[in-house]
Amino acid sequence: MVRGGFGRRDVVVSGRRPPPQRKADFAVARNSFRTAENDYEHEQSKNAVANPGRRGEAGILGIDLALRHKDRVGKAFAFAANTVVSGVKEGVEKNPTFAAFIERAGHEYAEHSATPKEYDAFVDQISKMWFDQPNWTDAELKAIDRPILVVDGDHDEAIKREHTEYIAATIPHAGLLILPNASHFAFLQDPKMFNFAILHFLGDE
Q1: What secondary structure does DSSP assign to 143-184, as a single string?
Q2: What confidence tens digit (pLDDT) does each residue in 74-112 have?
Q3: Where are the beta strands (DSSP E) in 55-130?
């Protein structure tokens, strides 16, 4: 399971570890989903549960793994992901809900990080990534042959609904799930629903 750039390791699947029989490992996404991918290379899980952070970096990573390392992926639950930078709404950083989450993440970073005074530098680095990545073509997405569930909240502050629908329509055999009364932070807003969606997709519930 891989969480997004502003997510904490202990808030994977909304604070609930997966059932013991899944034997899932955790990879830490820092300032780029490529860094997370390198960490994930050492994991043994056959299911990539892409848990959200800012702009769904982990959702992006789940798709990236299904595209480039499909032997390591059984299924990918991709929440709040974008496959091109134009899939992100302009001015999202000014959204009050997002601003509140970024502030919250800063406090958590200071409390849990080994480099508590480097949050601003971290934000600068990850922001540069958001403006440049990812940029997959239709052909690349159509080459994916792993089961992927493309998921988002019904009022995501960052990802355009039409882009979420485009991803699901372009990846062969992908499913689409829009979570009601939820946004980019569905895992906090309705953890019971979010957890059930993941576990149901993986076949646990």
Answers
A1: T--S-EEEEEETT-SSB-HHHHHHHHHHSTT-EEEEETT--T
A2: 999 999 999 999 999 999 988 999 889 889 989 988 998
A3: 75-79
Do 159 and 87 contact (CB within 8 A), yes or no? yes
Cβ contact 74:46 at 8 Å: yes
| Residue type present at position 11 | V
Residue 158: left if φ>0, alpha if ψ -120 to 50, beta else—which one?
Answer: alpha
Q: Say if CB 97 and CB 155 are below 8 A apart.
A: no
Helices 57-68, 33-40: inter-axial angle, 10-degree rounding: 50
Which of 14-28, 157-171, 174-188 has the weakest average pLDDT?
Answer: 14-28
- Residue 55 gets which letter from DSSP? G
What's the N-to-C CA distance of the chain in angstroms? 17
CA-based nearest residue to 65, from 55, 75, 54: 75
Residue labelled with tokens 């390791």 = 9
Model confidence at 42: pLDDT above 70: no
Residue 23 CB-density burial (10 A; 0-12 exposed, 13-18 middle, 19+ buried): exposed
* Domain architecture of the chain: domains with CATH: 9-202 (3.40.50.1820)
pLDDT: which is higher, 29 or 154: 154
Decide: helix, strand or coil at residue 48: strand
In the chain, % of residues over pLDDT 70? 72
